[in-house]
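Run log, item B.
One chain of 265 residues. Sequence copied directly from the ordering sheet:
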Amino acid sequence: MPPIIPVMWALALRTFLLTLGLAMAAAAACAQVRPFWRVCVTDLVAPPYLYNDPDRLGIAERLLVDAGREAGLDVALLRVPPRRCRTAIESNEAHAVLLSPAAEVQTRYFFPLTRDGALDASRRLASINFMWIKRRDTPFAWDGKQLSGGEAGVVPTVGTRVSVRLAIEQLGALGLNVDDSALSTRQLLLKVAAKRVDLGVAIREEVDYLMSDPAVESLVMLDKPLSRTEMYLAVPKQAEAERRQQAEAWWTAIGRLRGRPEYRK
């Protein structure tokens, strides 16, 4: 008859090893759970940065996902109209959004900053130009500072896509009337063509993409942009401290990856 104590020790050892194995497996599973972020990238089509197509990611979209992965985050993209992005942030459906740093926007969102508290352009996602669009038969011109060619005594009305805050602020500062009711850039261009507004302002890449449409063949884009700005990953100011720390790592990863060939035009 075999000794009882060694058998009991063997059973105890087997139980211990089994328990240890299960604990290690559980720990490994927990370690694989990455913080989840949903980013509202809007439904803009601005090649090569955004395509509004889950099967064809633009440069900015790939950079968001890849830099997030490098920072230990699981990133999903939400494609809805800009105004819907704000609602998604407020309801916590989205945790971050792509934005240009208009003054009003900076009161509600965190952006990557330098140690001096200035915007850190080295951690931007993309640089974009807001371009003027006019009907070919109108004399409007832009010298980089002043709009000319309008009817004497009449303030021109300039259309933008809804909620494009930076362009709206800049046009207002020029003393122009602003119509920001267009729900898409195509709708904006159609409004200019139909003489419902005098001019339009939109992102160069999106205008280039849409100008082949025969419905807007009467339009041209002026040579000089209204302005050039950067697009950033922005985080709402109500975000928890842990989220803000994750965003810092993410912004740093964006800055590190952005200069690589695969994230250039």
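Observations after the first pass:
- The domain at 129-228 is CATH 3.40.190.10 (D-Maltodextrin-Binding Protein; domain 2).
- The chain has two domains: 36-125+229-263, 129-228.
Flagged for discussion on Thursday.
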